[in-house]
Design goal:
Length: 302
């Protein structure tokens, strides 16, 4: 069987999509979806970067439907404002890709709402966004939500005693926790959708080790991680390759569960079912994390 690539994406004409994150994986997701005919909203916090990404996509897909909307996942007010604008501008949403993320800032940082920035952006911001957009998604045609996890989730655990890493902050374990939370959320959302009859398919994906700017942006270009990204670039697969599991989850007929690359312990390759870490399958943890997320964000999935 030939590897799955963007050439296998079915026509997305008539489908509406929101992709969070204007660079890296988000850019590649939006480009592929626009090329396939979807009406794409690229959502991010920086209007200049957003406008540049939209212009770059339009240069490659002149007839594509793509626009930028401001969304800061580190602010619950911004998330609610974004969702309100969408509710006023369209009747449905067919696809939501929860992609944007923050990775390993060297010192603890907080969101506008006082959350540790990795958990707050990667998980809680997307949890709130999905909850606000639920009415639009329920009116979508075969709607899907794809949430980005990471191979770092394998080593993650949810520390309910210090969820915001106030007592002890270590960048990578806290990042791993946030990405495990994303994976647990994706699986639990699918279970709840099935039970409640929402008709939404929720899928998780991870990019393996891709050549994005995450390790330049938060740790810093001259940090150990930033230098490894710059000097050992050949160990990282191209961003477009890293986007394939997400695009498969978003568009392949019958996609379900969790996807990542198929080679070298899921670090590179083409889309294939990914191995779920045991911590992601614990129902007690999933139920408690959902309740904590609702309490922290004030967003409930009715």
């Amino acid at each position: 069987m030939a590897p799955w690539t963007v050439s296998n994406i079915p026509s997305q004409k008539g489908r509406s999509a929101v992709v969070t994150g204007t660079g890296g994986l988000g850019f590649e997701d939006a480009l592929a979806l626009a090329r396939a005919g979807a009406d794409v909203i690229l959502a991010g916090r920086n209007p200049d970067k957003g406008a540049a990404s939209v212009a770059a996509i339009k240069a490659q897909v002149p007839a594509g439907s793509i626009r930028f909307e401001r969304l800061d996942l580190a602010s619950l007010a911004s998330v609610a404002d974004f969702a309100g604008r969408l509710a006023n501008s369209q009747k449905k949403l067919d696809l939501l890709i929860n992609n944007a993320g923050v990775m390993v800032p060297p010192v603890r940082q907080q969101t506008a709402d006082g959350f540790e920035v990795q958990l707050g952006t990667n998980h809680l911001g997307h949890f709130a966004l999905t909850g606000h957009l639920l009415p639009l998604l329920k009116r979508g045609k075969a709607p899907r939500v794809v949430t980005l996890s990471s191979i770092a989730a394998r080593s993650g655990s949810i520390d309910f005693d210090d969820l915001q890493a106030v007592e002890y902050y270590r960048p990578m374990p806290v990042y791993s926790q946030s990405k495990l939370a994303c994976l647990i959320f994706a699986l639990e959302l699918d279970r709840r959708s099935t039970a409640a009859g929402w008709g939404i398919t929720s899928i998780a994906a991870h990019p393996g080790i891709a050549r994005t700017d995450l390790m330049h942006n938060a740790p810093g270009r001259f940090s150990l991680m930033g230098l490894s990204r710059s000097l050992l670039w050949f160990l990282f697969q191209p961003v477009a390759q890293g986007a394939l599991p997400t695009l498969y989850a978003a568009t392949a007929p019958g996609a379900k569960g969790y996807y990542g690359p198929d080679r070298l312990s899921e670090t590179r390759g083409y889309p294939a079912p990914a191995k779920l870490p045991p911590a992601a399958l614990d129902q007690t943890t999933a139920t408690r994390l959902w309740a904590e997320s609702e309490a922290l964000t004030g967003v409930r999935f009715a």
